[in-house]
Specification:
This protein has 224 residues and is α+β, with helices and mostly antiparallel strands. The chain is built from 5 helices and 10 strands, in the order βββαββαβαβαββαβ. β8 and β9 form a beta hairpin. The longest helix is centred in the middle third of the chain and has 19 residues. The radius of gyration is 23 Å and the shape is elongated.
Length: 224
């Protein structure tokens, strides 16, 4: 099975929700960050905060979804066009996570209570951008990797040795299924160029050419 674009096989998101509040010229900017997997979940947070902060003037939002970050949306929610949603979105998409600008599966909602002093277009852009950036400073980042899983059939006697040697070689070994006459190991590798070939070569060496990998599935895994 061929891999998809390696550049989109991993990305960074946040591990837990974040709440950050800042006051700028008497206006309160309350920013929430949440990890989400799809657009309905992102919009659900916006709706949730509209109810919680029903008396606030604005509930601006931005979100980025998918490993390839192809889904990007933003809303000014009544603020002058381009002064809230887009700056919030750019704070997410241009964030350097230490692995590049690969932050995704995240929604930011910024609730504003107007304090009576107008900030002007430039002031609003800075306020919304900084609110999200400061919230991200508090976030615990999490790497997500697309993995391919395989099974390897072996004997009861050989299974423990194979498990130990594969782990020692840096491969992820999952659960082992025990059948009456055999055992089946579950192995996982990152969806990256050359990883399958490396695993196949290791299995061939480990089993003297007798072992055969069987493709199981593909899944996204939160890395420790």
């Amino acid at each position: 099975m061929s891999s998809e674009n390696p550049a989109a096989s991993r990305y960074t998101t946040i591990a837990t929700d974040v709440l950050h509040e800042v006051e700028i010229k008497r206006s309160r900017f309350i920013t929430y960050l949440r990890r989400v997997s799809d657009e309905p979940a992102a919009r659900e947070l916006v709706a949730e905060l509209r109810k919680s902060y029903f008396d606030a003037r604005h509930h601006c939002s931005a979100f980025v979804l998918g490993a390839d970050r192809m889904v990007q949306r933003s809303s000014d929610d009544g603020e002058p066009s381009g002064t809230a949603g887009i700056p919030m979105l750019e704070a997410l998409t241009k964030r350097d996570t230490g692995q590049g600008t690969d932050l995704s599966d995240i929604v930011a909602v910024c609730v504003r209570y107007f304090g009576g002093i107008k900030l002007g277009a430039g002031g609003l852009v800075r306020a919304y951008s900084d609110s999200v950036s400061q919230a991200l400073e508090q976030a615990q980042l999490l790497r997500v990797q697309r993995m391919h899983r395989y099974t390897l059939d072996t004997t009861h006697a050989q299974a423990p040795r194979y498990e130990n040697e594969l782990r020692a070689a840096g491969f992820q070994v999952g659960e082992t299924t025990w059948h009456p006459e055999s055992a089946q190991l579950t192995l996982a590798i990152a969806d990256e160029p050359g990883r399958k070939e490396t695993l196949e070569a290791h299995i061939a060496s480990l089993t003297a050419g007798a072992g055969t990998l069987n493709y199981l599935d593909q899944r996204w895994v939160d890395l420790p």
